[in-house]
């Protein structure tokens, strides 16, 4: 029973304290005046009566009522019902009182009314929440006062305060209602009659239990219904109102926010609504109780409360909205604001509310909408039912609550199976196993449930509902009996609704046990006419406190004398409901492990224990894969359990290793929470499995599985401890009761809640039974049980202290410093970073036991473990009620346990190091080059597979990776050598290596190895030779060693100076990086070089250079280096005559012979070959030569990055050159580098101009100037320079008809002959595309008859097959493809290209442009540089602005290319496929751009115009373009000597910055790797693919250069210019100087030597045509990915260090030869070839190489002196030639094609394009003899066999071929066929299409009688002239043919006739 009201208070306006704007309230009277003992009076009620503040108002307001809630210090809630009304005050008093305070400027009119009104509140304080009863009671008191009823107020208040009602239990006396009301009885009568009922009713005390009728003695009656079960909240209709105000989604947000402990603020202008909303939110949270700040109505003066850091639910009046927002805004904005009046919920951005897990959220929303809006479901029905009104508000309220109850039933079902009961007596102590609950529900990842389970509300839920013996309520019943029903119905909304309605009914009945009795009779104040008249309203009187107190005392005395009401609490055992396991299985959340996988696990374990190790080894990878599944892990633990006898299982080393490996794998994928209890089940096993190490020394498995995070997680240990304690306490009572012993195995007990379901009598049931018996036991029995339980917990605590020390102390305690960072030191931490030793032992020294335990590191380890265990013991012992004495004992015991364990571990560690390591594969030694030395010996590592699939078995076959071996760091390379982990390929050797200088990126990674299941440190190393090493260090490698490795690697990759690179240090010991001084061999060279450098420095110091961007690295120790470098430096004497310009005057006679070194340089030899000038002894020049070799740069003073000798126009003096050079970037002025021997056009190269140079030179060179400034004179000199170049060309004539490319207009074209017409627009179009114009769209040039945008179009006339007459115009794969080139000057574009398309049937023209129709010099310049440049119509040069690729673009593109070709990890994303990544890298676009510009230049040079390439700084793109132009134009550069010369001249002498672009030293490290030279080689490779017969060298030669230009093995590609090479003395090294014959300084020498030995670099198809100009296609569709980027040979590593590969092969051959020849079995000649493992070119060599090899081996066998392969080859070629001459076969005109049966014709004529839709052959040649037809010329067959396919299917000679229409047999139509006339076989064959290999039919020429003109017959092709038909008459039949036109028909007839006559 409880008091209805504890206090009655009257609060009024305080007239004395009214200051400023706000007044204050004070308590006028309170009853009782003395506090109740059980319930002190709450403070601060005045604030809550008027939350908006106490204020006087000018007009009386209506009385108001609301309920505030106050929470006291004990978290008890007090409900304060406030009834407020307004009383008048006389104004004169006010004015008198305030007279002194009135300000002078105050307007007196404001306080005019005669009366103002002050609020007065009547307050009831109660612990019960009966809002309506309070409203009636206070209303009655007000009515008695207002209407002046005869009843004294004291009586009413006395009765109110003495009213006692039951708290709950309405349904416990089951009886009929007190009376049933007849609704037809009039209201007044009904009340009286009800009163009579009560007066006459017998046994009233009994009925008070369920129904209480109260009267306050003023003729009133009220019925109070108390809830049947007070654990269920009472909500009235507040929940329904809340949903109406805010809507479903908003309330669900608030619900989740409240459960996950966010701050919630309600706003409304109604106080009662605030209270109701807060009450409703609490009601839907049931069965969880809100335990944070809860203030439904917060007074304005206490708004600061909102800034509390803790969660809250608070209501504030909308009056304070602005203040609230300021407050909330000043905080971290983490308050969720719900506006009840506006229906909005505002969630700040920084707040993340975790919502319900997915299917539940959807189901809840659906159920709620069915309750709130039942019409929604039938809104679309054709015949809706007549009425589907929602339930009444009170019922709807319960239905909504039922939905939430149902929701919690689903969320928490099975929670009782995860309770650990750790004490039963004296009070039950219960803990919840969160990890098991989440794991079994498969909700580990669910954010919402995690937060709810960690929250305060859930902790309260467990402590309240955990005990197994207590009263139960609706929620317990739901969890126990209805989970099954919920699960079955969850998919059917209607069944769910029925269930919800049932639950709602129970909730409603609980709140309204007697719904019929709802009658109140309460007096309300009369609304009389003069009611509001102030004179009629008396002030609320002061009450007589004595009278009221008498009432209270009387009632208290009566209560004391009355017998106590004993209400039997119905306690019972709480049922647990269905266990969790089944549910999860049925949902299918458990990872599906097929029975086959479990079988594999079982078999493997059986093999291990049966000692069948080989079998176990084969199964091991499959087992480790299977152990990723939960079922397989459980299976493993069960199997291992069976092999444990008496808690021990002794294994041998191999068994122990396998078992440990499996345990590690099992634990590897468990999270630190151990949600599936796997670590828990393994815990007893790791202390059971062991092996004997020596006398009395045993190593247990726990010392090898300490790596895992779970062992450092405090929550894991707590859950394990509680689980074990529960099992022991259960056992204790089962024994005590003589009950049957549990039959489940220990492992099953260990598994805790999951296994609990199968036990005979669960721990909770047992505890419930014990709790029931507890009151019946005697005191002795009770204390005995308490003591036994306490001892059980204590003994478990000791056991766990031991267990924890096992798993937390590392095997090698001396080594382990990492412990300070580990999770041990910190309870919250879940990571475990310390590394334990593997069984194989460690790199560290053994820890010696004699040294005692005070060793610093060891004690650190011990201390941190002791601290961790102490913290654990404190927590669990305090929670489980262990006595203080026992706790102290534990604290003294723990350090001893740890110390003891350290002692045993030391012995184990020492012994384990003596063990032979578990057969790890032996480390294989790599073969080293001569002069290559090991920097770090092999460290054991695992090579992990990366994103390349070939080696991983992904494409079939056993995986070669991962492999185990060692990484070696040498002065030259990084080498991995090892064997694959897969036992099926265990005997293969895997090698991966790359030069250390090519390392581009190093990244630390952590790798989990599938075998050992350790997370290991690793490195990912990328190289620009397209190799990737992903290595994981073995556990035996100490982490500091790995760090040393990284440091050494960095030091070698980025040496201080270029002299630190391998090319310089080779052959020396690693310490001295500079060669020692030796006797000078050539004094003169030394002098020359020294003086040259000195004077260059001096001159450069004087010279004023603007904008100098680049200077060679300066060294601090130059003076000391000088002496060491003397050996081969090159200098010129210091006494230089600056005026003299000839070489002879600069060199003393004694040194003159050394100058031949300079003259012998590549440049000079080439200049002489090209006829560009000579250096004779007398140095006299014939004056008619247009160019001369200038020595102006001999001191490298004019341009530091140019060579010493340069070709300049004869007429330009050196002084002018010095001035001109200043206009160009880096002083790189235009010089001639090549001359076309036929047209005499020259190719020049220079850097781009400085900005001022551009303006001065290109804008207006002829503008008059006020005075001759220096700039003007320079630009005039520049113009002279250009004019001199133009004058040098023989085609130059007087300027009468001079014009530029702009002259390509129709008027000019009409004057020229037809062959010119064909030629002009071609270059114009080409130019336009190179420049990238706006009009360059698919409609301008590319739209031919075939209309295909992607076709590759030739420079000359294309051929078209069939009837397509109009050949497509040329479109040269536009540079705009990359999407970057937007700027375009339309004027230049229109001028450069004519819009007219070429004539339809015209053939290519031999004639050059007419002289007056082209510029003599084209300057290829950078578009950005030439902005605003105006073309002068009188100049003879023209600027072609193009957009070049910036080096940054190349760098970024290359990075992406490497990632595409060598991805670091496999991915299945469609956006990351190889082709997509390749496209995104834009590498092909860059190649296309360079090739396109190069072909344009080739075209221009070939037509007789000179070209100057003037781009960027003149050393990147310029070099690429001029090199490619020379390679395409001059066959000499396509030979070995020529290509070497080209690279030496254009790349080395002209100063491409190899060191800088290759980031070869520390100084250039930041600039990054930019492969400009590689890009050039790739372009050469693309040309080589298209013209395989034009190159003397093979593709391997290009790959060799691509590899070694970054490898730093040779000095060739080091340093940035000749000047730097001279300074270091590497330019003129004499060949005889090599001390070590194995060490080559120059890559060219190496290639020469190798080329003599082996044909590896030679291209057997080399068969050059004289003066052949190549014009490759540059379309992206024609470019192929270079296999250098993607090929790999794992058997031997890169094949570019030839001697290594050879030695490796010899070793392998030696191994393969058996000792005794095995004659019994025939040996198979077959072998498997892996594409990524074997070198295919070696295993399956081509025919010629094979024959040459066989020749060599035969010579060796016969003892003949070996002949050089080249001699053999040349002999055979000569023989072939003579045979060909004898046979007089015209088809072989120059040489032999050995590996192909292609007739040696003009190879450049056509390339067959498989990409294009129509098979047309596109003619690339600028043929001399032209045919005017679009069909092939007889005797000049186009190459129908592919260039790329050199093995032709038939040996045939196609003398003539083309398309003819052939008439079929009778009644068959005419069809076009591809006809081939074969003179050799004497056949006319025809094919379905051009591409076909198999012919459709053959006409034997022997049977042909005649060829005659024919006539068109029926069905013949239309629109073809009559003369195009001819007939072929054979002995059998007549064939009718039709050619495309009459000339074509004549050609065919002549060709066939000539064949016939030949025969």
Summarize the structure.
With 1959 residues, this protein is α+β, with helices and mostly antiparallel strands.
Supply database-style keywords.
1959 residues; alpha+beta; 7-stranded antiparallel sheet
Written description of the protein model:
The protein is α+β, with helices and mostly antiparallel strands. The protein contains 60 helices and 44 strands. A seven-stranded antiparallel sheet has the order 25-24-23-22-28-27-26, covered by helices on one side. A hairpin with a 6-residue loop joins strand 38 (1854-1863) and strand 39. Helix 31 packs antiparallel against helix 32 (856-879) and helix 32 runs antiparallel to helix 33. The longest helix is centred in the middle third of the chain and has 31 residues, at 884-914. The protein starts with a strand and ends with a helix.
Classify the beta-strand content into a percent band.
5-15%
Mean pLDDT, rounded to whole units? Answer: 75
Q: For the largest beta sheet, what order do the strands appear in spatially?
A: 25-24-23-22-28-27-26
Structural class: alpha+beta
- Any idea what the radius of gyration is? 51 Å
User: What is the number of beta strands?
Assistant: 44
Distinct helical segment count: 60
What is the general shape? elongated
Give the termini separation: 133 Å
Query: Helical residue percent?
Result: 25-40%
**Biggest sheet character:** 7 strands, antiparallel
Query: Low-confidence parts, pLDDT < 50 over ≥5 residues?
Result: 96-109, 170-210, 582-592, 739-760, 817-857, 1070-1089, 1098-1155, 1258-1269, 1293-1321, 1334-1412, 1630-1635, 1786-1852
């Amino acid at each position: 029973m409880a008091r209805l009201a504890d206090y009655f208070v009257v609060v009024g306006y305080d007239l004395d304290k009214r200051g400023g704007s706000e007044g204050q309230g004070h308590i006028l009277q309170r009853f009782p005046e003395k506090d109740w003992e059980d319930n002190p009076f709450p403070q601060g009620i005045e604030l809550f009566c008027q939350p908006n503040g106490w204020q006087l108002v000018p007009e009386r307001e209506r009385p108001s009522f609301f309920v505030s809630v106050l929470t006291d210090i004990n978290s008890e809630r007090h409900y304060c019902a406030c009834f407020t009304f307004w009383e008048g005050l006389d104004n004169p008093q006010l004015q008198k009182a305030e007279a002194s305070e009135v300000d002078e400027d105050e307007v007196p009119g404001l306080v005019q009314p005669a009366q103002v009104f002050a609020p007065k509140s009547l307050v009831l304080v109660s612990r019960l929440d009966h809002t309506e009863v309070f409203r009636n009671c206070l209303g009655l008191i007000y009515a008695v006062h207002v209407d002046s009823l005869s009843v004294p107020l004291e009586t009413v208040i006395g009765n109110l305060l003495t009213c006692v009602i039951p708290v709950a239990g309405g349904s416990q006396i089951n009886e009929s209602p007190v009376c049933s009301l007849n609704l037809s009885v009039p209201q007044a009568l009904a009340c009286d009659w009800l009163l009579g009922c009560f007066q006459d009713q017998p046994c009233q005390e009994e009925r008070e239990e369920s129904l209480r009728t109260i009267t306050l003695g003023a003729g009133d009656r009220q019925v109070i219904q108390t809830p049947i079960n007070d654990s269920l909240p009472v909500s009235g209709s507040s929940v329904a109102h809340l949903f109406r105000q805010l809507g479903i989604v908003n309330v669900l947000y608030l619900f989740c926010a409240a459960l996950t402990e966010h701050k919630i603020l309600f706003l409304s202008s109604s106080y009662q609504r605030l209270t109701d909303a807060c009450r409703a939110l609490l009601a839907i949270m049931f069965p969880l109780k809100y335990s944070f700040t809860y203030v439904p109505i917060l007074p304005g003066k206490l708004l600061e409360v909102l800034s509390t850091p803790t969660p809250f639910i608070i209501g504030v009046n909308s009056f304070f909205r602005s203040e609230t927002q300021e407050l909330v805004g000043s905080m971290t904005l983490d308050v969720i604001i719900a506006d009840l009046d506006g229906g909005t919920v505002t969630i700040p951005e920084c707040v993340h509310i975790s919502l319900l897990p997915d299917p539940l959220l959807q189901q809840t929303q659906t159920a709620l909408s069915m309750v709130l809006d039942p019409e929604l479901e039938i809104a679309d029905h054709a015949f809706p039912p007549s009425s589907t009104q929602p339930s009444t508000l009170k019922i709807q309220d319960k239905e909504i609550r039922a939905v939430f109850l149902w929701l919690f039933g689903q969320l928490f079902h099975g929670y009782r199976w995860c309770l650990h009961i750790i004490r039963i007596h004296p009070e039950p102590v219960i803990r919840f196993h969160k990890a098991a609950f989440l794991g079994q529900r498969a909700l580990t990842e669910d954010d919402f449930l995690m937060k709810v389970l960690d929250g305060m509300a859930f902790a309260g839920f467990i402590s309240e509902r955990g005990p197994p013996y207590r009263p139960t309520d609706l929620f317990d019943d739901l969890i126990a009996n209805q989970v099954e029903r919920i699960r079955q119905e969850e998919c059917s909304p209607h069944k769910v609704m029925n269930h919800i309605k049932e639950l709602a009914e129970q909730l409603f009945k609980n709140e309204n046990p007697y719904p019929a009795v709802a009658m109140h009779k309460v007096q309300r104040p009369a609304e009389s006419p003069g009611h509001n008249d102030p004179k009629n309203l008396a002030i609320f009187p002061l009450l007589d406190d004595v009278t009221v107190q008498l009432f209270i005392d009387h009632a208290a005395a009566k209560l004391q004398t009355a017998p106590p009401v004993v209400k039997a609490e119905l306690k019972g055992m709480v049922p647990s409901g269905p266990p969790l396991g089944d549910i999860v299985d049925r949902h299918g959340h458990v990872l599906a492990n097929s029975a086959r996988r479990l079988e594999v696990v079982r078999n493997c374990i059986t093999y291990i224990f049966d000692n069948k190790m080989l079998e176990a080894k084969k199964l091991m990878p499959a087992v480790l894969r299977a152990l990723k599944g939960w079922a397989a892990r459980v299976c493993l633990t069960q199997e291992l359990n069976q092999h444990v006898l008496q808690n021990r299982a002794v294994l041998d080393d191999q068994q122990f290793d396998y078992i440990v490996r499996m345990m590690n794998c099992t634990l590897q994928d468990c999270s630190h929470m151990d949600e599936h209890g796997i670590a828990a089940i393994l815990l007893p096993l790791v202390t059971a499995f062991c092996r004997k190490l020596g006398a009395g020394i045993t190593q247990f498995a726990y010392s090898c599985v300490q790596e895992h995070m779970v062992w450092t997680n405090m929550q894991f240990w707590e859950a394990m401890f509680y689980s074990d304690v529960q099992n022991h306490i259960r056992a204790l009572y089962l024994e005590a009761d003589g009950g049957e012993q549990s039959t489940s195995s220990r492992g099953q007990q260990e598994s805790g809640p999951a296994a609990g379901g199968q036990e005979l009598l669960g721990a909770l049931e047992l505890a419930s039974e014990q709790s029931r018996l507890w009151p019946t036991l005697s005191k002795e029995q009770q204390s005995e049980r308490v003591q036994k339980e306490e001892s059980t917990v204590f003994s478990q605590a000791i056991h766990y202290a031991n267990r924890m020390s096992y798993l937390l102390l590392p095997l090698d305690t001396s080594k382990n410093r990492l412990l300070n960072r580990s999770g041990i030191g910190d309870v919250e931490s879940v990571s475990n970073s310390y590394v334990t030793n593997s069984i194989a032992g460690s790199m560290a020294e053994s820890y010696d036991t004699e040294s005692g335990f005070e060793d610093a590191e060891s004690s650190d380890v011990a201390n941190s473990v002791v601290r961790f265990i102490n913290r654990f013991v404190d927590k669990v012992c305090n929670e489980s009620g262990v006595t203080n004495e026992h706790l102290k004992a534990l604290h003294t015991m723990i350090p001893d346990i740890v110390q003891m364990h350290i002692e045993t571990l030391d012995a184990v560690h020492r012994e384990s190091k003596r063990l032979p390591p578990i057969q790890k594969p032996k480390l294989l030694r790599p073969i080293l080059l001569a002069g290559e030395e090991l920097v770090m010996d092999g460290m054991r590592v695992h090579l992990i597979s990366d994103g390349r699939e070939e080696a991983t078995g992904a494409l079939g076959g056993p995986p070669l990776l991962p492999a185990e071996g060692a990484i070696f760091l040498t002065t030259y390379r990084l080498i991995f050598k090892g064997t694959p982990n897969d036992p099926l390929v265990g005997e293969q050797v895997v090698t991966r290596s790359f030069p250390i200088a090519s390392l581009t990126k190093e990244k630390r990674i952590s790798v989990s190895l599938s075998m050992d299941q350790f997370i290991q440190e690793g490195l990912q190393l990328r190289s620009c030779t397209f190799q990737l090493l992903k290595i994981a260090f073995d556990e035996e490698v100490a982490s500091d060693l790995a760090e040393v490795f990284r440091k050494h690697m960095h030091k070698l990759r980025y040496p201080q100076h270029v002299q630190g690179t391998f090319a310089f240090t080779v052959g020396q010991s690693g310490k001295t990086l500079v060669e020692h001084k030796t006797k000078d061999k050539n004094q003169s060279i030394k002098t020359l070089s020294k003086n040259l450098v000195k004077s260059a420095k001096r001159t450069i110091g004087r010279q004023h250079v603007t904008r100098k961007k680049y200077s060679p690295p300066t060294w601090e120790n130059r003076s000391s280096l000088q002496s060491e470098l003397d050996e081969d430096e090159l200098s010129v004497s210091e006494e230089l005559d600056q005026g003299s310009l000839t070489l002879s005057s600069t060199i003393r006679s004694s040194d003159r012979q050394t100058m031949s070194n300079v003259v012998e340089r590549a440049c000079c030899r080439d200049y002489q070959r090209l006829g560009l000038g000579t250096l004779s002894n007398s140095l006299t020049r014939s004056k008619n030569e247009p160019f001369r070799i200038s020595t102006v740069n001999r001191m490298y003073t004019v341009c530091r990055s140019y060579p010493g000798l340069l070709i300049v126009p004869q007429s330009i003096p050196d002084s002018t050159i010095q001035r001109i050079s200043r206009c160009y970037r880096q002083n790189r002025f235009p010089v001639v580098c090549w001359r076309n021997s036929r047209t005499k056009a020259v190719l020049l190269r220079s850097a781009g101009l400085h900005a001022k140079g551009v303006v001065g030179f290109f804008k207006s060179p002829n503008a008059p100037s006020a005075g001759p400034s220096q700039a003007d004179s320079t630009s005039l000199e520049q113009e002279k320079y250009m004019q001199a170049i133009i004058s040098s060309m023989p085609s130059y004539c007087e300027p009468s008809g001079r014009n530029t490319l702009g002259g390509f207009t129709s008027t000019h074209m009409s004057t020229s002959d037809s062959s010119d017409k064909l030629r002009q627009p071609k270059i114009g179009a080409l130019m336009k595309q190179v420049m990238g114009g706006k009009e360059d769209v698919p409609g301008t040039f590319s739209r031919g008859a075939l209309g295909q945008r992607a076709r590759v179009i030739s420079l000359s006339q294309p051929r078209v097959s069939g009837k397509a007459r109009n050949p497509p115009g040329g479109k040269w794969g536009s540079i705009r493809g990359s999407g970057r080139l937007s700027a375009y000057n339309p004027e230049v574009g229109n001028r450069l290209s004519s819009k007219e398309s070429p004539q339809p049937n015209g053939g290519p023209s031999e004639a050059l442009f007419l002289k007056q129709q082209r510029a003599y010099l084209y300057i290829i310049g950078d578009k950005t540089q030439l902005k605003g440049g105006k073309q002068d119509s009188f100049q003879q040069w023209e600027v072609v602005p193009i957009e070049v690729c910036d080096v940054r673009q190349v760098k970024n593109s290359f990075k992406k290319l490497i990632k595409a070709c060598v991805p670091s990890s496999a991915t299945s994303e469609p956006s990351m496929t190889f082709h997509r990544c390749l496209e995104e890298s834009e590498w092909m676009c860059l190649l296309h751009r360079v090739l396109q510009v190069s072909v344009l230049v080739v075209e221009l040079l070939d037509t007789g115009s000179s070209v100057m390439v003037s781009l960027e700084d003149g050393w990147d793109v310029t070099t690429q373009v001029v090199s490619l132009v020379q390679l395409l134009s001059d066959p000499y550069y396509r030979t070995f000597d020529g290509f070497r010369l080209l690279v030496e001249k254009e790349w080395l002498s002209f100063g491409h910055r190899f060191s800088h672009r290759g980031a070869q030293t520390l100084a250039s490290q930041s600039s990054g790797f930019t492969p400009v030279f590689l890009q050039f080689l790739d372009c050469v490779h693309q040309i080589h693919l298209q013209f395989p017969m034009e190159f003397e060298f093979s593709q391997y030669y290009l790959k060799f250069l691509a590899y070694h230009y970054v490898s730093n093995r040779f000095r060739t590609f080091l340093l940035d210019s000749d000047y730097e090479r001279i300074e270091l003395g590497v330019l003129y090294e004499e060949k005889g100087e090599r001390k070590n014959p194995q060490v080559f300084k120059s890559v060219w020498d190496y290639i020469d030597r190798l080329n003599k030995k082996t044909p590896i670099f030679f291209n057997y198809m080399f068969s050059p045509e004289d003066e052949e100009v190549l014009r490759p296609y540059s379309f992206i569709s024609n470019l192929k990915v270079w296999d250098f980027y993607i090929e790999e040979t794992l058997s031997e590593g890169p094949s570019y260090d030839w001697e290594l590969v050879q030695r490796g092969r010899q070793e392998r051959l030696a191994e393969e030869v058996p000792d005794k020849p095995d004659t019994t079995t025939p040996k198979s000649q077959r072998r498997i070839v892996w594409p990524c493992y074997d070198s295919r070119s070696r295993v399956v060599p081509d025919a010629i190489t094979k024959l040459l090899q066989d020749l060599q081996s035969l010579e060796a066998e016969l003892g003949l002196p070996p002949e050089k392969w080249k001699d053999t080859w040349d002999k055979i070629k000569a023989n072939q030639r003579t045979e060909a001459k004898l046979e007089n076969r015209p088809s072989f005109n120059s040489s032999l094609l050995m590996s192909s049966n292609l007739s040696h014709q003009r190879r450049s004529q056509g390339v067959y394009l498989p990409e294009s839709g129509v098979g047309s052959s596109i003619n690339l040649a600028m043929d001399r003899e032209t045919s005017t037809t679009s069909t092939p010329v007889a005797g000049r067959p186009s190459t129908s066999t592919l260039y790329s396919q050199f093995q032709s299917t038939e040996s045939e000679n196609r003398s003539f071929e083309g398309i003819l229409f052939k008439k079929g047999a009778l009644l068959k139509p005419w069809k076009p066929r591809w006809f081939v006339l074969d003179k050799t076989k004497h056949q006319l064959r025809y094919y379905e299409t051009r591409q076909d290999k198999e012919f459709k039919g053959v006409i034997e020429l022997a049977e042909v009688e005649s060829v005659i003109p024919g006539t068109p017959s029926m069905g013949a092709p239309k629109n073809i002239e009559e003369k195009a038909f001819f007939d072929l008459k054979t002995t059998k039949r007549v064939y009718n043919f039709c050619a495309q036109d009459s000339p074509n028909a004549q050609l065919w007839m002549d060709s066939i006739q000539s064949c016939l006559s030949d025969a």
